[in-house]
Amino acid sequence: MEVFHLILLIFILACAVCVALTKNLVVAAVVFMGQSLALSVIWILLQSPDLAITEAAVGAGVDSLLLFAALKRVRAIDREAAGKRGEADAPNGEE
Amino acid sequence: MRRTERNERFHRWLSEGDTRLDTMLAEEYDDLTTLKHVYESDAAAAEETSRAEAEEKAREAASAPLYTAAQAHAEYDVPQRSRALYLLTALLLCAGMIAVLVFISSQLPSFGKSENPANNEVVERYVEKGMEETGPVNIVAGMILDYRAFDTLGESNVLFTAVCAVLLLLKLASSGNAPRPAAAPAETEEDLILQRITRALLPFILIFGCYVILNGHLSPGGGFSGGAVMGAGLILYYNAFGAAAAERFFTIRTFRVVSVSALSFYAVSKAYSFFTGANHLPSFITAGVPGRIFSAGLIPYLNIAVGLVVMCTMYGLFTLFRKGDI
Fold it and tell me: Is the pTM for the entire model greater than 0.90?
């Protein structure tokens, strides 16, 4: 159990650093979602099921959905998808 | 004799000339067709590029108000030395902050010791007399909905106010004279996988949410977590089946009626804390037998009210961001 705890904590740390460092906003939102999920497992291990349910529903669910909706609204998702397409198509010409 | 020979030669020359002409013509024709092809493909390419440019321009114009950090960085040309200074300062500040945080957390009392300052008479009272005084088996529900019910009322009001603020901002932005920057609510695409999965999962999500709310005084959970689960389920439905399907059962009217009546019920049923201070009046709803579903006084009903407010808030915030309206 101690090892499992440690793995989860390291995962959370890695996720936090990743969110801070990544340039892609969509990736940041997804990583944040994963961090919340690991955090909810930690709440269960700390015998706090109330918080675990709330963390899973709010942190991993609604919060990330709101982030995605906000990104959609400022067109960050569209722009990033367009950027990816442009990079992929440039060497081959259009397909 | 000579005449016939000359005749023959002439005829041969003629026919050779014919074939030569034919081949020449054929070559010319080939050239022309290839030229035509080249010309056509050039024109198509030019048209393609001009269209792509127009699209790019339109996209840039659409996202013009967004001033990205990269642009800012490119435009604001920092001298090399001050950039190095900036990096050094940032690194030093970060290291200092980390050192302070690590030092403080190393000075914290260790988890779960009996002599910790958090372990005082308040906690003792909550743990020992909580069930007896408030009724719920889940002592957390007794704390947040009885001892600290006033705080929870404030929390619910904060959520409600947040939705009102977002509604005001987005509605004002959309009803002004200027055309909406992020208009054209992107209608969700029909996704067969998402729809099937949603159809299978949604009943379980909603029932789990109801269970968490209704059983909040007996098991872990309560209004906030259950409401969040149900709100997430509704958001999933919205994403799978689109705004039109979701509007069949949830409109701005539903939001108004449900949120306001739930908040008013909460406020009315806990308003006496204003007048009585910390010790609440003996309620006519008795605590009942701990462990029964109808027990713990007002707590189950307050849980339902909080759950409804949270569910409406979560779903309302999402739809507001998604299409600018509930």
Answer: no
